[in-house]
Amino acid sequence: MKIYLTSLGFVFPPLYGILLCSVLFVACNEQTVRKQGYDVHGIDISHHQKEIDWEKVVAQGIQFAFIKATEGESYKDSFFCENWSEMKAVGIKRGAYHFFRPTVSAAKQAKNFIETAELENGDFAPVLDVEVMDGVAPETLVDNVKAWLQIVENHFKVRPIIYSNQKFFNQYLAEHINGYPLWVARYTSWRKPRLRNGEDWQFWQYGNRGKLEGIKGLVDFNVFRGSKEDMEAYTLVRPGPLLDPPPAPTSDLAVTNP
Q1: Cα 54–208–214 angle (5° rounding)?
Q2: pLDDT for 14
Q3: How far apart (Å, rounded) are the C-alpha atoms in residues 63 and 122?
Q4: Residue 243 belongs to a domain
Q5: Are residues 46 and 10 part of one domain?
Q6: Are 177 and 145 in contact (CB under 8 A)?
Q7: Fewer CB atoms inside 10 Å of the end CB: C or N, the chain?
Q8: Is 241 exposed, middle or buried (0-12, 13-18, 19+ CB in 10 A)?
């Protein structure tokens, strides 16, 4: 009987190899189950999910959602405005993200996001989705990401959240970009994200095959590392409008000349 060396470094007879491939295929295509042990659950969406019944989504215990707003210099997600307003109507904590294109001017990408995402008090800080190189050198990627983050932080007066998958973040960003809230993708049911620079993650995207009533097709599942109250630390808080000063107090006592 012939044996084969797999990419995992194990040796299997042909039949066992077929069984192993079958198990891996099923594991990669099975429905994502809501993760236990976390108080705050959320999703992230884009035009791929099309129309969403947000009342049904909230009724299933989903407390926050990130939605794609923009990509590159000019792309705007076709369902962003509709979902953005409906999310506010049902009271779900909402966040908007920009998909970063490393070959495009960071300033033009920041402008696209700022003009599209009308963030309000209580919304999550802006999110930058960094997960592709598009052929640029690693140092160019880092410089452009830093430029986008600085422009957007200056505009919204809050430090943006960075989204990336664990492998990409550890390989290209961990040693160069620190001190930002992190939303990390790692699709596994038993291992939490581990970041090379030792920083903690705040949001974990743990699966991309979730199902919810009110959403057609599959959706990404996420958890927040903390309580609902802790989550407020990553939201936008802007000063309210200036109020007119109160009128000067008046006296009811009549003043008479001696």
Answers
A1: 20
A2: 53
A3: 13
A4: no
A5: no
A6: yes
A7: C
A8: exposed
The reply to whether 26 and 151 lie within a common domain is no
In this prediction, residue 197 carries a pLDDT of: 83
Question: For residue 244, is it within any domain?
Answer: no
Do residue 163 and residue 136 come from a single domain?
A: yes
- Print the SS3 string covering the chain: CCCEECCCCCEECHHHHHHHHHHHHHHHHCCCCCCCCCCEEEEEECHHHCCECHHHHHHCCEEEEEEEEEECCCEECCCHHHHHHHHHHHCCEEEEEEECCCCCCHHHHHHHHHHHCCCCCCCECCEEECCCCCCCCHHHHHHHHHHHHHHHHHHHCCCCEEEEEHHHHHHHHCCCCCCCCEEEECCCCCCCCCCCCCCCCCEEEEEEEECCCCECCCEEEEEECCCCCHHHHHECCCCCCCCCCCCCCCCCCCCCCC
Catalytic residue among 39, 53, 131, 153: 131
Q: How buried is 23 (Cβ within 10 angstroms: 0-12 exposed, 13-18 middle, 19+ buried)?
A: exposed
pLDDT above 80: residue 6: no
Region 224-228 average pLDDT: 97
Residue 249, token pair as written in the block = 């107090």
**Amino acid code (one letter) for 128:** L
Q: Is 252 among the catalytic positions?
A: no
With tokens 């999910």, the residue in question is: 49
